[in-house]
Amino acid sequence: MTKKQSSPSNSPAPDNWDAQLRKGSLELAILASLWPEPLYGLGILRALRERGRIEVAEGTLYPILNRLRLDGLVVSEWRDAGTGHPRKYFTLTGPGRARTTAMVAAWHAFSMQMNEMLSPVHEKGTDHGSTD
């Protein structure tokens, strides 16, 4: 059995790679947005946008929140916020805080490793030629 080699024509586009990277990080960003205080959906979207410059559609957010709720990492409750209609607030549970802490530690370790790996790419004025 031969292994098919990847060529530039069938490799994922950089935009697709970026989307996959964001998708893989979104759960951690949502959990982190809830760390300081319980938030309702729009509050989470604002926190992601303002604190992390991460734009997320509501259609993406709510399925993740539901999965986090089913996993016992967040709880939700309807609250009257004095706006005339109740809002569903999400709060980290004890296991949710523990998972967030573990994910942050893993993120820091991984990002340090990646930063070290990528440092030659960031070095200015270094051109070792290409291997086209």
Describe the structure.
The chain has helices spanning 14-33, 41-52, 58-70, 94-122; strands at 39-40, 74-80, 86-92. Strand 2 (74-80) and strand 3 (86-92) form a beta hairpin. The protein is elongated, with a radius of gyration of 20 Å. It has one domain (25-120): Winged helix-like DNA-binding domain superfamily/Winged helix DNA-binding domain (Arc Repressor Mutant, subunit A), CATH 1.10.10. It is an alpha+beta fold. Strands 1-3-2 form a three-stranded antiparallel beta sheet. Mean pLDDT is 86; it is low at 1-8.
Question: Helices, strands, pairings?
Answer:
Elements (H helix, E strand, L loop, with lengths): L13 H20 L5 E2 H12 L5 H13 L3 E7 L5 E7 L1 H29 L10
Antiparallel strand pairs: 1-3, 2-3
Short key terms for the protein model shown above:
132 residues, alpha+beta, Arc Repressor Mutant, subunit A, 3 strands, 12% strand, disordered N terminus
CATH-wise, what's the superfamily?
Winged helix-like DNA-binding domain superfamily/Winged helix DNA-binding domain
Strand order of the largest sheet: 1-3-2
How many DSSP-defined strands?
Answer: 3
Q: In the CATH hierarchy, what is the class? A: Mainly Alpha
Order of helices and strands: HEHHEEH
- How much of the sequence is in beta strands? 5-15%
Q: Assign a percent range to the helix content.
A: 55-70%
The CA-CA distance between the termini, in Å, is 27 Å
The geometry reads as elongated
* Low-confidence blocks of residues: 1-8
CATH topology: Arc Repressor Mutant, subunit A
Number of domains: 1
The helix/strand class is alpha+beta
CATH architecture: Orthogonal Bundle
Mean pLDDT: 86
